[in-house]
Each structure stands twice: as C-alpha cells, then as structure tokens.
Amino acid sequence: MRTADYIEQACGNLWKKKLRTFLTTGGVVIGVGALVCMFAFGQGVQKNITDQFEAMDLLNYINVSAKHEVRRNPSDSDPDAAPTTDEPTEPAGAAGEPVEVLDDDFIDEVMQIEGVEAAFPEMRFPAQIRRGDKEQFTIVQVVTSRACRSELVQLRAGQPYTSDEPNEAMVSDSLLLRLGNTEPETAVGREIEIRTITLDFGLRSLMRMAFGRGDQRLPVSNQRYCFKVAGVIERMGFGGALPVRSDVFIPPGAADRMRKLVLTSVSDLFQPAGKMAGYSTVTVRVASPRQVSAVKAELEERGLRTFALMDQLDEMKKGFIIMDMFLLAIGMIGMTVASLGIVNTMVMSILERYREIGIMKAVGATDGDVQKIFLFESGAIGFLGGVFGLVLGWVVSAVINLVVNGLTARQGVPYIRYFSFPWWLCLGAIAFSILVSLIAGILPTIRAAAIDPVVALRHD
Amino acid sequence: MDADAFIRTENLTKVYSSGPAQVAALRGVTLSIQKGCFFGVTGASGSGKSTLMNLLGGLDTPSAGSLFVGGRRISDLDHEELALFRRRTVGMIFQSFNLVGSYTAAENVALPLLFAGVAKKQRRKRAAELLRTVGLEGRADHRPGELSGGEQQRVAIARALVNEPQILLADEPTGNLDSHTSRQIVESLVELRRARSLTVVMISHEQELLREFAEEVIHLQDGAVTEREGLR
User: Fold this and answer.
1) Which residue, of A205, A245, B110, B222, is most buried by count of CB atoms within 10 Å of its CB?
2) What was the ipTM of the complex prediction?
3) pLDDT > 90 in chain A, percent
4) Do B98 and A361 touch (CB under 8 A)?
5) Is A310 part of a structural domain of the chain?
C-alpha cells in the first residue's frame, strides 16, 4: 500500500466521524497547548535571565574579599569546631592577619592585571530615604566616582558626582517613583535625607532595652544626613548579583563621615577593629568572560577569596534543566489524559469497523496494512492536535503575557516577555504530539491487525 | 487421486475448540478440482461448507491435512503469505455481499487494488472497467445501501475479479437473492468463468441451481464428503 493512500484513508476515516475526531483532537490540542505553554515559560525565564546576564555583562565580574583568619589558640580548642579545609589554620599562638588589605592601593594594583577593566570597592548599608513627606527603606551602596562615571551606570538625568567627597547621591528612577516623583529631571539638584541605622551601645539605650520601656527592642539609633541628588539612574530589570544594584549610590568620602551599620559580611561584626582596614569586598570587572578564570587565579594566588558568577553558570544550567523537567511533568498530565482519549477513540473506531477489517483482509490486506491504516489515523489526530495545540499555547501565552505585563507596568516593572517559542519547541511539540498519538495507537492497532477475518466476516 | 488438479486437498481437517469442547467442522476432506472447472459444494447448515470455503480462500488454516493450489502447498503459508495468496490468486463473494457501506461501488471494487499498491488513477480505471463487465457502469458512485441485492452482489463479483485471480470462490452467493436474480448471478459467474478461464467454486444449499450449472458437485455432511456427482 502506498503512503499517500494511507494518509488519504486516515483523513477520510477521520472526516467520516467528525464529532469524535473533533473531541479527541480537542483533548490533544489542550494537552499540547498546556505543554507548549509550560515549556515556553521555562524557555522565556531562561532567555530573560541569560539575556540579562549578557546585557549587563554579569559574567565579566569577580568579587574579591580578604580571607578572614580566625584567631586560634591551643588552649581554647573547641571540640565541636569542624576542621575547615579551605582555610589554613595559623600556627599556634600566632594572630591571623589578612594576607592583603583591600584598600585603594590594592585597587590600583588590581587594575594593572591584564584583562582587568575596572575595580571598585563594594560597601552597602540599609537606610531610610526621605524626600518631602514620603519615606522608603532601601539599600545604599557606596560607589566611587570613577565607577559611577563608567558605562556600568546608565544615567537618565543629571550627572554622576565628580569626586568621592561631597554629600551627593545618585538615585534610581524607580526609587524616585516610589517617593512620588515621576519626572527624573526635576529631582536633580534637590535634597534627600538618608537616615542610617547604627548600633548604639550607650548606657541610655541599653537601659531602655533592659527594662523594656519604649517599643525599642534592639540597641539601635538613627542618624540623619542630607544629600543632594546629582543624577538619576535607570532601574535594572533584575537585581541579581549586580555590582551596581542599589537604588542609591553615594561616594566613599561621604560614606566615611556617616555612622552606619554596614551590610557586608556578618563576620565583619566579629573582627577586631584594627583588621577592618580597607574594604571588605572589591568588585573586579574584566574585559571578557574568557579572562575571568585567569584573573581569578591570579587574585587567589595573592591569598584572596574570589567569587565569579561565571562559575555559577553551570550550576544555573543544571537548575534550568530541573525547572524544565518540572514544567514538563506538569504539562505531561494533559498529554497523558489526551493519549487515553486517543486509545479510546481507536478502540471504538476498530470495533465499529470490525467487519470492514475482515473485508480488507479477505481482499488481500496484510496484518501490517491493517495496522498501518489505523496507526496513520491516530498519527493524523496527533498531527492535527500538535498544530492546533501549538496555536492554542501561543495564543494563551500571549494573553497571559499581556495581562501580567499590564499589571506589573503599574508598579514600574519594565516589559518582560515571559514566554519564548524557539523553532525547535514548535517543531518538537508537533513531533511529540504525533509520537504520543502513535504510542497511544499501538495497542489498539495491534488488536486490529490480529482480527481473524473469518470471525469478522461472520460479524454483524 | 488426481495429482494434476489445480486445487487439491488431502485429508483436510478443521477442529474448532471452544473452551474444553472440540468441534470438528471438517473431517478429512480430500478432493481435487480441475483448472477452469465450475465446482459445486452443497450440504445442510453446519455441514462444513463455509469452513471448506474459508480454507480454500486462505482466510483460515487447517488443523490437519493439506491444501495445494497450482502445486503450491497453501496450508503451510504464514499470515503474510496467505494475505498475498488472497490478494493475487483468489477472489471471494459472500452471501451477505460484504461490501463496505461507506464506500461507493467504484471504491469497493477498487479496494483490493489499494492493498496491491496500485496508483489511484489506475484503480479508478480498473474499477470502471469491471463495473462495466458486470453491467453496473451507471452505478459507480452509488453506495451499497442505494443498490439492490443483485446489484450489490455484482459489485462484489467485480471486486473479486479486479485483481485478476485464477479462482473465484462464491459462498452462498444467491442466499439473499430472489430466484430470478439468483439465476442471473449464477449465469454471470458461468459467463465470467468462460471469458476469463476462471476456476469457480460455488457453495450453495440450492442443489437444483448447482446441478443446472456446475460440472461437479460434492455433498458435505458433518464435515465429510458423502456424495460426488460428475454432471458433465
């Protein structure tokens, strides 16, 4: 039998039972639609993240921090302390000292390493920002004027501060929006108030806490500082591990004059004052992600601890696979139900045409001919279901995209395409639908092929 | 025993087992049919006529004994080979016509060609030719439900002959027809046999009809041959 004849037979038979074909195919359409939606969402998320990584060249950064040595004394050996392998312990009695102090000299040295484009200290602290009568809690980041003038920062209005000393700040447009300003240009040159939080171990504060008077539970107090808005920066879609990621940037000189609780590492809280010299973290930017490992190796040779997102990329890819599998598993529920529908339809179709199968065999159809006629039928259901399911999935995801973006746009979130339809997803969906339909058709068609023509011809 | 016979059976036996009980439908039938012969098989209901027919047509396989067609041992063929035997060597017609109700007369006639892998255009041409042979050229686009019993049986005959078989097996072809139409159908079988040098095996309980047209008639009773009549 010719392939064209199988297809013609299959289409003809499906057309004769329009309602049943429509309902069965409908099940496949919904199954494929759900699967396509799920998969396109997974792809969309991955594409957004990797695009964002590329757009902000996150893979070009290395975070450098000093190794904090723990003071060790043979007399106060702690039996519960697990021996650490990556931090060599100092000889007995010797006070651990940072191998390198991360200060401005260090930054200048790092800039000399081949491939390094920029290096800047990283320091952040929580603060309340007040403008007029509105207040917002956010994280303030200390950024050198040099880093502020680099292409890492995208300006919307005003200018970056020119030196590291003045009480000037760069504010993100999204924070301004939350503070009630919709036109960034008008904010430039105006004043904002930064209220920091500090630990206060003064007698009065301790007494208050000890006797539980007032509503304060922690020994903290506030300090207010006035800053001039020098420039407005563009908000980034995803925060992530960006080196410049906060809503407010201030220069290091101004930061030095403030009393604040710095949020770098909890271990800083336990460092002796003398060891706090320099920055706790320095961010290094290299020209291309390929240079990351070389620069990293050189920094580690100096006894520094490094962290690069590049290293995390493989881990993330594994995570994406798990996410894909999870979405796939959910999407497969619909497909499983649809395939049961196909099995049912094929069993019914074969029962109805029991006698016809007997006739086909009597006039010379082989078992294989009979099986293929029905397999083409279920394959055709799969093809139709795949094509229309793809269309359904695309329409549904477009609607979801429209609705979600409509809702989030009011909160100042930029437009995000949540679904992605790469070509292989489209072709794969149709191929998968056909495959599932063929698998669903296998058992019924084997039964059809095995029908005894003598019995079938006697059948009424 | 005639070793030159076109169709030859030796001790052909068919036993059906339904549960623990075994029913012998054919008990050692031995017969030989010459090429081009009009051969009649008669007997009461349940005598094993249809079982013999199914074995001769390759629709069923014997429990014991052998069947030879043109010197080839058919009783040893597997499923696939039997399908090819049915496709190329035999054409069958039945009491209940066994036409596909949703196909037109032309499509029914062309059905065997579909499995033979003949192109669509060729199939149409051949179907039209055979419908003309059985005098139904005007009925090509009618479905079986729109045709009379005689017309339906003639469509079935056209279908049986479309692959140009050497043997035409007719299982009670007149069972559902009035006596006038019955005669016409049998007459056309005789006519086709002559024109196409077919070997025709017709099963019928109408002994008069067989005696009038067949050259040789056997009587079956309880699965065994009880009487042989050489008529011409």
Assistant:
1) B110
2) 0.94
3) 29
4) no
5) no
